[in-house]
Structures are given as structure tokens and as C-alpha cells.
Amino acid sequence: MKVTITAKKLNISQSFNEYAEKKLNTKLDRFFPEEAEAKITLAERRDMIILELTVKYNGIIYRAEQTAKDKNDALDVTVDRIIRQIRKQKTKVEKSLRANAFEGLAAEQEEPAYEVIRYKKFEMRPMTVDEAILQMNLLDHKFFMFKNAETGAVNVVYKRDEGNYAVLVPEN
User: Fold this and answer.
1) 20-29 mean pLDDT
2) Which residues 6+ apart lie within 8 Å of 63 measured at CB?
């Protein structure tokens, strides 16, 4: 697994780098081959460490974030969360495979795990990220999809738990 560690306004020791690589390789190698990418981002706010772990493999992204006093403790919690996410996804896939295995024999079908209750159409006019954030706040929504005036791509802006904003931008 390729591990990248980034620190924002924070110095990290070589011992943490070694601990993180060992932890990820020990816990996650059984789920992912060597091509998988893990990214650890560390930041400090009010004497607390915010650790974000993102694992990408085969188009699937697993992400966990933890705030703690100690970066090692935060890493342990995020790795455990990633493992829970992997197991949860694996269980859903296995249930789906089992349900479809006897499709011709069973008269009843299981209901899908996710139920879409509403489709909404709206006009997307080009706007800047700042305009999109303003519009989202005016509507009192948690996220807002818009057409970026600078790039022409469809983006999503959302408010993070700590009060900052983030923008989702497609890679293609």
C-alpha cells in the first residue's frame, strides 16, 4: 500500500511516519493490494490533532476522520473505522449476490437497501464557489450542487462539521 502523510502547519516525527505505515500495512493489507493508496492528513486546532485517513482503490474511496489529543490514538480510531466501512460494504455485496443467486426460484424479492423517495430537477446557472455557498446558506441546506462559472463543471459545495466549507470537483 502506498502511504502519503501530509501535515498542515504541524511537524510530524519520523517515528509517527513509521508507526502509521506499520499500522496501515498490518491492518489494511489483507483488504487491499499494493496498488491501493492511503493518504493521512494531519492538522492541529486548539491543542487537538485532526487526522483524516483516505484509502483509494479501484474507484472506491474509504474515508474516516478523528479528533484527538494524540495523533497515534486518532490514527488507531480512523483505521478501525475504515475496517468497519470495508466490512459493511462487503456484507452488502454478499447479500446482493445471495439474493440474486436464486432469482428464478424465489417468488419474493428483497427490497433494495436504499429507497429513493424524491427526484428533484432544477436549473443550474453558472456561479462562483462563493455564490454557491451563499445560495446554500440562504436555502439552509447542507449541500448545494452548482455549475462552476470558472471551469464549467458541475461541483458540490457543503459545510463540514467544524464549520468550514468544502467543494467536490470531478476529476474528469
Assistant:
1) 90
2) 52, 53, 54, 55, 82
The contacts of residue 135 (CB under 8 Å, 6+ apart) are 127, 144, 146
The CA–CA distances, whole Å, from 10 to 17, 66, 160 equal 13, 16, 21
Q: Which residue, 51, 24, 50, is CA-closest to 37?
A: 24
Torsion of CA 73, 78, 81, 82, to 10 degrees: -140
d(CA 100, CA 106): 10
CA gap 74, 81 in Å, rounded: 11
Q: Quick one: pLDDT at residue 163?
A: 85
Taking the model in full, what pTM does it have? 0.61
**pLDDT per position as a tens digit, 62-92:** 899 999 999 999 999 999 999 988 888 877 7
Q: What does the radius of gyration of the chain's CA atoms come to, in whole angstroms?
A: 20
